[in-house]
């Protein structure tokens, strides 16, 4: 095991329009044992621009993990997910849908679009922190992620 790989900062790309949820997720990740940075945008149009390094996001890092809300302004999270998974340059980035929707149709549609996992956000603060810690432990500590290309 190389120390260089272990010490590499992970980039978590959070696509979330609710400022309070962004703050809570960042707070939940603050004491992470995995070195990381959280980058965030508040709508689907900027999410795609960030991922494709367009416009103001020309120097954006390639994320190691995407946390995607479904209900977004400008371009909805379902459309963002479809574009990510249809793009040969982006489709290998793991996408975790993290949303308040418990709708069976949203869940089925997300998996049909090849989401890596679907998690329903809790409105209970301690449960939300547990969920985010679980995401961090699994996706950033346990799973072997593809190298950034």
Automatic annotation (TrEMBL):
InterPro entries per UniProt: CheY-like_superfamily, Sig_transdc_resp-reg_receiver, TCS_response_regulator
Keywords: Phosphoprotein
Entry annotated with the keyword Phosphoprotein: yes
Modified residue annotations for 4-aspartylphosphate: 69
GO biological process: phosphorelay signal transduction system
Residue stretches spanning the membrane: none
All copies of domain Response regulatory, residue ranges: 11-136
Keyword Phosphoprotein: yes
UniProt-recorded name of the protein: Response regulator receiver protein
Organism field: Chroococcidiopsis thermalis (strain PCC 7203)
């Amino acid at each position: 095991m190389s120390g260089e790989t272990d010490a590499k900062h992970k980039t978590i790309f959070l696509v979330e329009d609710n400022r309070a949820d962004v703050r809570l997720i960042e707070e939940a990740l603050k004491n992470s044992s995995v070195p990381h940075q959280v980058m965030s945008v508040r709508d689907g149009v900027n999410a795609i621009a960030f991922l494709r390094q367009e416009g103001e996001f020309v120097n954006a890092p390639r994320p190691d993990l995407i946390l995607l809300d479904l209900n977004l302004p400008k371009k909805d999270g379902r459309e963002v997910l479809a574009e990510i998974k249809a793009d040969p340059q982006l489709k290998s980035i793991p996408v975790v849908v993290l949303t308040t929707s418990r709708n069976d149709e949203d869940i089925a549609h997300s998996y049909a679009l090849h989401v890596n996992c679907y998690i329903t956000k809790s409105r209970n603060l301690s449960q939300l922190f547990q969920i985010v810690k679980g995401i961090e432990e699994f996706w950033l500590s346990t799973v072997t992620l593809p190298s950034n290309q």
